[in-house]
Amino acid sequence: MAVEIVCETHATTTDNEAGIATGWLPGELSELGRRQARELGERRPGDGFAAVFVSDLHRAVRTARIAFPDAPPPIYQDIRLRECNYGDLNGSPMPLVAAQRARRIDEPFPGGQSYRQVVGATDAFLHDLAAGWDGSRILVIAHSANRWALEHLLAGRPLEDVLDAPPAWRPGWYYTLPADRPASPR
């Protein structure tokens, strides 16, 4: 069997609107973000999710809690679904962080982590998901870096390509996590 994964990014934050790369800072949903979170719940009410897994960062947790205020499905926070830690650049202008993206595939941001480390954390999450949720449909609410990691790990796109030309936002990305998935191509 397999695990069906629907991935959504957290709703819009005040930092997103201001062009700030939040990184590991909590982030607050904007008015638009709160509306998007409600719309997420309206868009996915009968989708048969066994669980919702979210980053433990405030903006992702808040998105899930607004979308599904009267769970089910159960909501689980997982630190491995965090955005890339931009280290000294957490809270910096987005263009500054984006300009370093290709350089930070394997070399961590000063005081932070690399995108390859995000792939490793996301891969560890997938390993546990495959072991405990086989045959289930799961919703993941996380961040851009995790979505890029899923594109790399489950869609087979080279990480360099994903970071060079990230897929445009849309309401949900769909992935299949095979039960017999081989080790990741980190």
Topology summary:
Layout: E1 2-9, H1 14-18, E2 20-21, H2 31-43, E3 51-54, H3 58-67, E4 75-77, E5 92-93, H4 94-98, H5 115-132, E6 137-142, H6 144-155, H7 159-164, E7 173-178
Helix pairs in contact: 2-3, 5-6
CATH class descriptor: Alpha Beta
Distance between the termini: 24 Å
Rg estimate, integer Å? 16 Å
Strand content: 15-25%
Mean pLDDT: 91
Shape: globular
Q: How many structurally independent domains?
A: 1
Widest sheet, order of strands = 4-3-6-1-7
Number of helices: 7
Query: What is the CATH homology-level superfamily?
Result: Phosphoglycerate mutase-like
Main beta-sheet strand count, sense and barrel state: 5 strands, mixed
CATH architecture identity: 3-Layer(aba) Sandwich
**Total strand segments:** 7
Structural class: alpha/beta
User: What low-confidence regions span 5 or more consecutive residues with pLDDT below 50?
Assistant: none
Structure, described:
The protein is of the alpha/beta class and 186 residues long. The chain has a single domain, classed as Rossmann fold. It is 37% helix and 17% strand. It is built from 7 helices and 7 strands; from the N terminus they run E-H-E-H-E-H-E-E-H-H-E-H-H-E. It has helices spanning 14-18, 31-43, 58-67, 94-98, 115-132, 144-155, 159-164, and strands at residues 2-9, 20-21, 51-54, 75-77, 92-93, 137-142, 173-178. Strands 4-3-6-1-7 form a 5-stranded mixed sheet, with helices on both faces. A two-stranded antiparallel ribbon has the order 2-5. Helix 2 packs across helix 3 (58-67). The mean pLDDT is 91.
